[in-house]
Protein: alpha-galactosidase
Organism: Bifidobacterium breve
Amino acid sequence: MAIMDFHGSSSRGEDIHVVYVEQRDARSAFAFAIVDRELPRIVHWGRPLSDPRTLVAAVDALRPQRVSGALDETAWPSILPTQAEAWTGAPRFVVRAGGVELFCRFTVTDVRIDDGGATVSAEDAEQGVRVLWRCELRESGLVRQRMSVVNMRAEELEIGTVELAFPVPADMTEILTTTGHHLRERSPQRQPFTIGRFQKASLVGRPDFDSSLLLNVGRPGFGFTHGDVYSVHVAWSGNSLMAAERLPYTSGLIGGAEALSGGEVTLCADGDDNRYTTPWLYGSYGEGFNEVASRFHNELRATHAQWRAELGVAEKPRPVILNTWEAVYFQHDFDTLKALADKAAASGVERFVVDDGWFGARRDDTAGLGDWHIAQDVWPDGDHSLKALADYVHAKGMEFGLWFEPEMVNPDSDMYREHPDWVLRPTAHRLPMQGRNQQVVDLTNPQAYGYVYGCMDALVSELGIDYIKWDHNKYVTEAVSPRTGRPAVHGQTLAVYRIFRDLKTAHPGLEIESCSSGGGRVDLAILSLADRIWASDCVDPVERADIQRYTSLLVPPEMIGEHVGASPAHSTHRATSQQMRMAMAFFGHLGIEWNLLKEPQSALDELGVWVDAYKRHRADFAHGTVVHGDAADPAVRVDGVVSASGERAVYRFTQLTTSQTYPAAPVRLPGLAPDADYLIQPLACNLASGEPFTQIGNGQSELGWWNSQGVVMNGGALDAFGLRPPCIHPANAVLFSATRV
């Protein structure tokens, strides 16, 4: 990374200080200017510049003229626009003293540059508020910024909003976000970036299904492989918002913030509690989503490599999982799960996870949650205990995993009956509306935290747990702590992070999955601690095609739980071929959500073939580059992963529905070196499935390259004109490889 700073003067005689940062290998650069000690303004974000010294002139080149009917200065937004700098859009810095809102004008007092980025200090001395803005350009090419607010007053200061922003070029006029609900997360939606404010907020204690992992703006029609795209992400697992906003006087701003309730964060007049720090706001620029996403993937991979180094844990291949939920639900017993473990091991499974139902009075979802002790009526001590099952699983050469929902409690539980004050509630006599018969444990209460952490810590040691599936099934609403009488989502979120860190530090090598009714809590902050996420409770492969595709805008494939389920799918009752189900689960962290005890041996044999094929490719999925194609046909999808060396790639062609084109038109293969030649051939695990007159194919003649010999093509040609995919029935997919020759 290179960091430079330059000084100069504007045409008005103002002092200008420009800080320029670039990561040339990542083809990313960023610069901000401080004009006469005003808050920084971003003057470049994109590719590295050949002569960044010229950015001093950007102040004169970019500052708008005064216009009629407005203020003496036309708004030219800083990283934290306020009315003092002529910003008249939505309030982005809201603080109150004694219930009275303060309108601040900040003056920069210090700029410090270090190897990682820059820290700018500024204050409104008259009103007693100081801010410290930190900006970094990461090795991945991501830009990230956050701000600390410091109370210098003799009275408390309440934090309302601290919404940071990135400006984008004026021709970025289309917004893409995702929406969704349970069982259908990450559904894309586009709209014009018009004058006004577009906002996506989540106020249920987690990002939720409807959250847009990224808020993206770009040139109209931008896609995965083309078009400039600027994206932002708020790395926070509690309440948050992201917004895109334009005024008649400005080009667009994109940014976000933690969403705080009144009185949730109040800074003391002195001491350790006089500072609030925002979550990191990340920005990613690229030509198409594939480049934008690769930056987030590289960032997360680097974060986890650092974690492993700190804990002395070696990297290992992502183990194939069998999770018992859709296999047996709450019907636990030793003999059944022992037999399921046998089938799992024979199919190549490396991690066996026992889901909900092992504890307390938890025979269904109405009771027992929060009573984190092994149910003796289901798992009696002795030969049929949960410990005996864990030992059996370990003896079969598999890891053992267990489900928890640490943040929640059933009112019908011993925990709740003994400690009703450990539950978030708006008043002493009223609970929030329930969800799934649950309420939320107040983890900001040290006693509740100690109980939950202590139970989990003890069970990890007692059973030799290698993996925790951490669930979170209830909206966190009306979240007031009985201990403080204040809203508690902020503190609750920090407490969750602390449990993750404490457990992983106490048990090096322990892995934790972030599940939240599926994909309800997916963000960079939880992903920096969790080892994977559960993308959706829906494992129907047709629904998963886009759920997984748009989840991968933020999450690398090895961190996305992708499972082979039963047919018909439990969530949709859609019947699909086994090939489709396995192909759709192939590119992520492969798992099985399926009662193998009820399947014929032929299905198990085929499953074993695909599991073996996955193991041969999973190292590339853990280190390679995810690529998605832009097909004109809305009925098809092209997805792939190119190895880190660029020598290999695996692609999936999916025919979701019938097409207007029959057979399907040629598809482009993104991500290959344009000056190299590649052998393109079907993966052996589904070669037979894609040939004519078989289960999933509907072509009536042979496809010339769909055989073990394949075809050699140039990477540039494959990206320009592509190749013809097999003609297959709807709701089916095939896999093929590209190997450099």
Observations:
- The two ends are 34 Å apart (CA to CA).
- Residues 2-302 form a domain with the Beta-galactosidase; Chain A, domain 5 fold (CATH 2.70.98.60).
- The chain has three domains: 2-302, 315-448+474-498+520-619, 627-740.
- The chain has a mean pLDDT of 97.
